[in-house]
Amino acid sequence: MNNNENGPVTRLNTAQFIEGIPAFLGMVPNESLVIALFDPQGTTGPFARLDHDNATAVVALDKLMAAAESADFNATIAALVSIHPNGDTAEEPLLAAPRHAYTLGLAVPIAAVLPEYTAGETFFNFPSAESGELGDILASTVAVLGVIDGRAPIAPSRDALAAELAPAEDLGVLFERQWDARQARAQAPEITDAANLETLRDAIEAPRELTYPEAVAVAITLTDNPRARDVALYFSRNVAAVAILTDAARKTSGYARFTILSVLAAVAYAHGYGVRAAVALDAIENGVAHETQIPKLALLIRQVVDHGLHAKGVQEVLEAGRNVLPEFGFSPED
Q1: Tens digit of pLDDT for each residue in 151-173?
Q2: Helix (H) / strand (E) containing 100
Q3: Is the dihedral of CA 241, 246, 247, 250 positive or negative?
Q4: Which residues contact 145 (CB under 8 A, 6 or more apart)?
Q5: pLDDT on residue 78
Q6: Which residue in 15, 221, 245, 308 could disulfide with 63, CB within 3.0 to 4.6 Å?
Q7: What is the pTM of this model?
Q8: How many Å apart are CA 231 and CA 210, to the nearest integer?
Q9: Quick one: which of 174, 167, 141, 151 has its CA closest to 267?
Q10: Rounded distance, CA 297 to CA 229, Å?
């Protein structure tokens, strides 16, 4: 579940909304039901991707409304898009979900079906009885703005998102690098932590991938020093951090990798990438030998993701790192 607030979408142009969904989610949601809430001005609020299931769609609407209320977001409009090559499968949730939306006091100007996300495919919107042709999702306004902001590229599927987090090298090689980084930190932990945070900050501000030694050094600092992790979250208020942390997760292993993944999950959710956050949490939960190895931050974000809470709360977690900056020689102006 996502909670984007990416500007006005007044009068809800159906084609623009459908084309912008992959950029909102950070992935192409084929064989999915997508639900978004809007306020009276057309500003995008809570956003969710689901499998095709009527009961799940009803529950999701309730969660979206709860998330909107918790963030003082005045949701008055729901828009639904069902993507599936089987017409019956695609249309079925568009009967149950809008009915429930009406009981919640929501208008439903968009309840559209689409076979798949391919340019040229035809979509049909039931409330307006209008059809249209899908354009290039990479040319949507949301996607273009995402490129300008340094957002992570749109993944072709959830599996592709998971593949982006797979370790890039043999685990033995990754562990050896981490051993060297831990030895280096042991010599002068305070100086090393400050230097590693500065490296991360600079990589986010002028977006670039961390090198293997840099990624490992940052991961060790964040693992061994929770206060440094808070500063890393603060630096990650820039959306470019999502791509930087995604790449860094591939260059680490063991508990240090879980730390990077937990930070990525928090940062991704704060920036509206609910699916990417969930995939990062899955990578932790599938990789640990025992649940006690799951970082506390990951446990917190799992609750946020599962309950569809508004991103505002996680954004406040990122902002809280401001108070720790002086401990590492930084100031809010840095």
Answers
A1: 777 889 999 999 999 988 776 77
A2: helix 93-103
A3: positive
A4: 6
A5: 95
A6: 308
A7: 0.83
A8: 17
A9: 151
A10: 10
